[in-house]
Amino acid sequence: MRILVAEDDNTIRTWLKIKLSKWGYEIDLAEDGLKAYELYQQHAHTLVMTDWMMPNLDGIGLIQKIRETASVSKTYIIMVTAKQEGGDVITGVEAGADDYIVKPVQSDELQARLIAARRILKLESELQQQNANLEFANMQMKADLAVAARIQQSFLPHKELIFKEVIFEWGLLPCDELAGDALNVIQLDDFHLGFYLLDVSGHGVAAALLAMTLIHTLSADQANSTLYKRSDDGSYSILPPAKVAERLNNQFPMDDINGQYFTFIYGVIDLQTKCVTYTAAGHPGPVVISTDIEPISLPTTGMPIGFIPDNKYEEETVQLKQGDRLVCFSDGILECTNKYEEQFGRERLMRQLQQQYNSVSLRDCIDKLVVSALKWNGLSPLGDDVSILSLEIQ
After folding, report:
1. Fewer CB near the terminus (10 Å): N or C of the chain?
2. Mind listing the pLDDT tens digit for each residue in 295-312?
3. pTM score over 0.85
4. What domain range includes position 101?
């Protein structure tokens, strides 16, 4: 340890040099505050001992200048003073001194104060290193989350979902780095499209991991997908939505440790008849917007996936025609809350969808709906992921 000693009394300065050298310390000596500060700027001493009364710059001024210096390491300062009044001691501590010794300095007391100072500096150094390690780990975690988020986004629809008979538009706004919501559109065969939107309970990594697992399960890979049934002859057929929900319910029972489950809406549209069959397992039912009738709010058809073992699910069927829009959404948009704790709600959502039906495209309709929900939510952070998947008959 290198110690800076600022003392204008030559006798005391010499005595301190002898003692400190004997105890194994490196020493820089200064006869006034200005010289001491010059030495400190060169060496950024870990420990400084300074007299109170000195020419050019006194001890209080020296301490203040050291504390103003952006030093990489912590500097421990001991004030050496002949003043014993409590107010003077407080003045020194307020200026930035960590400890003080009253003259005449006793050898044992000085050595004890230096041992205590070394212990404190060691603890502070270890704490600084731990903080640096935590900061690095935090930066690494954020970088990993950013990579995971990009991977997760790559599994969302990444091209325009336009078919001759129907067009799809979607939006997903996570409330955290990773989303617990997922959605997709799958071409099941030449005449049928499947579409789903799911919402895993909770947030963060655990919800995102389950969402990613489900994305792989709900794929067009017939041999490994939950969306198909394999016949004895090796051929595959499209599994009805209710059966898909039942299969998922048995495959993903609610976790006993963290109570994780998910809501799920899955529909199949027949491109020839424009008929949609869907099941909504604990998920908000979709909304149909049409030219000649009021918006229709379709029902939920069963419990969330994983709640009840061997649960049976029902299906609903809706016949669409040219120009009709069917909108699926997570409860994250319904539960956006304004400053009066009022939720955005289904009625407001349906009203806005109807108002925009004749004036904007399906893409613009989705965007305007999300913007309205965010404005309703105000400056508060989103409490849940917001996801929408919508289709329009061409």
Report:
1. C
2. 899 999 999 999 899 999
3. no
4. 2-128
